[in-house]
C-alpha cells in the first residue's frame, strides 16, 4: 500500500508535552500542516515538571520565545545546577552545575591539572574553578546578550502550558476539549484514522502524536508498543508533590535534591512559590511514611497538594508505531532526578521536526526515529543510575541495595575508567558532558587513582598559581553580579496586580 502523505496532525493531550509539540510544529511548520490538539478537563495533567536542562534555551529560540516575557509569565527563575544533599553520605553536599570547569586542552580535560596539583599537596577545591558553580553557591546571577553563562530555568508547569497554548492558538492550532474514548484504526494496516470523543465526535488525522501522559492511550493501549522496565536499577516508583509558600527574601538559583531514607525530595524555587515533592520506592517505605518525611522537611505553608503519582521507570520499546509517535510521559519516564523529562520532550519534538513524515510513515524513517530515541534514553539512564550506585550510605536497606546493585555494563565501564585513569569519555551525543560526570562522580566520592600527566609539563608552583589565579578571577567576577533575586526583579518582575493574584 502506498504511504499516506501527512497534512492533518492530531495531538492527543494538553500537558507540557502536548503544548510543546503544538507550539513547535505550528511555529516551524505551521503553513504546511493542519494541527488539532485534544485535551480533557476530566483528566488532569501531572502538574509537576518544573525544572529544566540548559538545552531548553535553544529550544525556546526555536519557538521564538522572548526570555523576559517567558520568565515573567511562568513566574520562572534561573537554574544553574542542582544541589545534592545527603547522597554519598549523610551530611554531604555538592552542586552539579551546568558550568564549564577551567579550560581543557587537546590532550586532556582540565580536571587533570587539579588532580596532579592535589597529588603534590594542593588543597584547593575543584569547585573554585567553575564560574556557574560559584555563582550558584552565592545565589548570584546575571545574563545579557554577550554573556556565556550556562543555565536553565525553573517555571510553573501550568503557566508554561497556558503560555504555549496561547502562542499555538495564535499560530492556528485548533483546540478541542473532550475525552477520547475510542480509536478507529484502518482494518488492514492498523494505522490510526480517527479518535472518538465522549460526545461522539470523530477527529480524523493523517498523523497522531500521543501526549496522553502515563496513560499512553494511543501508543500503548491501542498500538501495543511495549515497555522496557528499568526498575531493577531505579527503585523509585511513586511521588507525592506539593506547592508551598516560600520565604521570598532569597531565591537560590538551583534545584535542591535531598536524599531521604528511601528516596529523595526536590525543592524548586519559583518567583512566587516553591514546588516540592518526595520521590520514593514502595518496596522500602509506605505512602504514609513518605508523606510524613515530606511534611517534616518543608519550609513555608502548603498551598496545594497534588495527587499521588505512580510510575514505572523505563522507556516505551518503540516510541513511533505506524502513524503515531509518543512524546512526553507516554514515551517513558526515567525518574525526576536531574530533570531530564522536559529535555526529552523537546529533543523528541526537535527530532520530529527534522524527520517529519511529509510523504508518509515509511519503515526506514520510523526505525531511525526509534533508534535515536532509544539511545537518548539509555545514555541519560546511566547517568541517573550513577547517583544511586556511587553511594557510601548503608543506613537503610534502600541505600544498601542501591550501593550493592549490578549496573549496566556501559556505566560499570565508565566508573572503572574514571577510578583507574581519571578519564571521562562521553559519547559526542551524550546529554551529560565531561563536567557533569565529573561533578557527580567526585560529589558521590568516586575518586580516581590515575590521571593524565600533561600537567607535569608545568612546575608544581606554576600549576598551583594557575589554579589559584583562576579561582581568584572567578570569585571576583561572581562578587560583581547581582543576587538572583535582584536579577529577577529587574529582568522579569511580575506587575503588582498579577503578583497579587498569585498570593
Ligand atoms: C514526580 C515527578 C516529577 C517530575 N519533575 C520533573 C522535572 O523537574 N523536570 C522535568 O523535566 N520533568 C519532570 N517530570 C516529568 C514532567 O512532569 C513531564 O515530562 C511533563 O509534565 C509532561 O507530561 P505529559 O504532558 O506527557 O503528561 P500529562 O501532564 O499527564 O498530560 C496528559 C494530557 O493528556 C490528556 N489526556 C489523557 N487521557 C486523555 C483522554 N482519554 N482524552 C483526552 N485527553 C486525555 C490530559 O487531559 C492531559 O492534558 C516529573 C514527573 C514526575 C512524575
Topology summary:
Blueprint: E1 8-12, H1 16-29, E2 34-39, H2 55-63, H3 67-73, E3 77-79, E4 81-85, E5 93-97, H4 111-119, H5 131-137, E6 152-154, H6 157-170, E7 174-177, E8 180-185, E9 192-197, E10 202-204, E11 207-210, H7 217-222, E12 227-229, E13 238-244, E14 255-260, E15 263-269, E16 274-280, H8 287-296, E17 302-305, E18 309-310, E19 314-316, E20 320-321, E21 324-326, E22 332-333, H9 341-354, H10 363-389, H11 397-404, H12 409-421, H13 434-443, H14 460-479, H15 484-492, H16 496-502
Helix pairs in contact: 1-6, 1-9, 9-10
The protein binds flavin-adenine dinucleotide.
Flavin-adenine dinucleotide (FAD) binds at residues 12-18, 38-40, 43, 45-46, 48-52, 157, 179-180, 211-213, 215, 217, 239, 241, 277, 279, 309, 311, 328-330, 336, 339, 341-342, 345.
Give the termini distance in whole angstroms: 58 Å
Cofactors, ions, other ligands = flavin-adenine dinucleotide
Derived from helix and strand composition plus strand pairing, the structural class reads: alpha+beta
Strand content: 15-25%
Let me know the largest β-sheet: 8 strands, mixed
Mean pLDDT: 96
Q: Compute the CA-based radius of gyration.
A: 24 Å
Share of helix among residues?
Answer: 25-40%
What distinguishing features does this structure have?
FAD/NAD(P)-binding domain; binds flavin-adenine dinucleotide; 6-stranded mixed β-sheet; 22 strands
Amino acid at each position: 500500500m502506498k504511504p499516506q502523505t501527512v497534512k492533518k496532525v492530531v495531538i492527543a493531550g494538553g500537558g507540557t508535552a502536548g503544548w510543546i509539540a503544538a507550539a513547535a510544529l505550528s511555529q516551524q511548520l505551521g503553513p504546511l500542516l493542519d494541527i488539532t490538539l485534544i485535551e480533557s478537563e476530566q483528566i488532569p495533567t501531572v502538574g509537576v515538571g518544573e525544572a529544566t536542562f540548559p538545552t531548553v534555551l535553544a529550544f525556546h529560540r526555536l519557538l521564538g520565545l522572548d526570555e523576559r516575557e517567558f520568565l515573567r509569565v511562568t513566574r520562572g527563575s534561573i537554574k544553574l545546577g542542582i544541589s545534592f544533599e545527603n547522597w554519598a553520605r549523610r551530611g554531604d553536599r555538592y552542586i552539579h552545575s551546568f558550568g564549564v570547569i577551567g579550560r581543557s586542552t587537546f590532550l586532556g580535560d582540565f580536571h587533570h591539572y587539579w588532580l596532579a596539583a592535589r597529588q603534590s599537596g594542593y588543597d584547593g577545591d575543584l569547585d573554585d574553578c567553575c564560574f556557574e558553580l560559584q555563582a550558584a553557591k552565592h545565589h548570584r546571577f546575571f545574563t545579557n546578550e554577550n554573556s556565556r553563562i550556562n543555565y536553565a530555568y525553573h517555571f510553573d508547569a501550568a503557566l508554561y502550558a497556558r503560555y504555549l497554548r496561547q502562542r499555538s492558538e495564535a499560530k492556528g492550532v485548533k483546540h478541542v476539549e473532550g475525552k477520547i474514548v475510542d480509536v478507529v484504526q484502518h482494518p488492514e494496516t492498523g494505522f490510526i484514522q480517527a479518535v472518538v470523543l465522549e460526545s461522539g465526535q470523530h477527529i480524523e488525522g493523517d498523523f497522531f502524536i500521543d501526549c496522553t501522559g502515563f496513560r499512553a492511550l494511543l501508543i500503548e493501549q491501542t498500538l501495543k508498543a511495549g515497555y522496557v522496565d528499568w526498575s531493577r536499577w531505579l527503585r523509585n516508583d511513586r511521588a507525592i508533590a506539593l506547592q508551598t509558600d516560600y520565604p521570598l527574601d532569597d531565591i537560590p538559583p538551583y534545584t535542591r535534591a535531598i536524599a531521604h531514607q528511601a528516596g529523595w525530595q526536590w525543592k524548586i524555587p519559583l518567583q512566587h512559590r516553591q514546588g516540592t515533592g518526595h520521590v520514593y520506592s514502595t518496596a522500602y517505605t509506605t505512602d504514609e511514611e513518605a508523606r510524613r518525611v515530606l511534611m517534616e522537611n518543608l519550609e513555608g505553608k502548603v498551598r496545594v497538594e497534588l495527587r499521588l503519582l505512580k510510575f514505572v521507570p523505563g522507556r516505551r520499546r518503540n516510541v513511533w508505531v505506524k502513524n503515531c509517535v509518543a512524546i512526553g510521559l507516554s514515551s517513558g519516564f526515567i525518574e525526576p532526578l536531574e530533570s531530564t523529562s522536559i529535555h526529552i520532550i523537546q529533543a523528541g519534538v526537535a527530532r520530529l521536526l527534522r524527520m517529519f513524515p511529509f510523504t508518509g510513515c515509511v519503515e526506514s524513517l520510523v526505525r531511525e526515529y526509534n533508534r535515536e530515541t532509544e539511545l537518548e534514553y539509555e545514555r541519560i539512564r546511566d547517568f541517573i543510575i550513577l547517583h544511586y550506585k556511587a553511594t557510601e550510605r548503608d543506613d537503610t536497606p534502600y541505600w544498601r541495595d542501591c550501593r550493592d546493585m549490578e549496573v549496566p555494563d556501559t556505566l560499570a565501564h565508565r566508573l572503572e575508567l574514571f577510578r583507574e585513569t581519571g578519564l571521562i569519555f562521553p559519547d559526542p551525543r551524550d546529554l551529560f558532558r565531561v563536567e557533569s560526570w565529573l561533578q557527580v562522580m567526585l560529589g558521590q566520592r568516586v575518586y580516581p587513582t590515575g590521571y593524565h600527566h600533561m600537567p607535569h609539563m608545568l612546575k608544581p608552583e606554576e600549576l598551583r598559581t594557575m589554579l589559584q589565579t583562576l579561582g581568584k578571577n572567578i570569585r571576583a567576577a561572581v562578587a560583581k553580579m547581582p543576587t538572583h533575586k535582584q536579577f529577577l526583579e529587574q529582568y522579569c518582575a511580575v506587575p503588582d496586580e498579577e503578583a497579587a493574584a498569585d498570593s
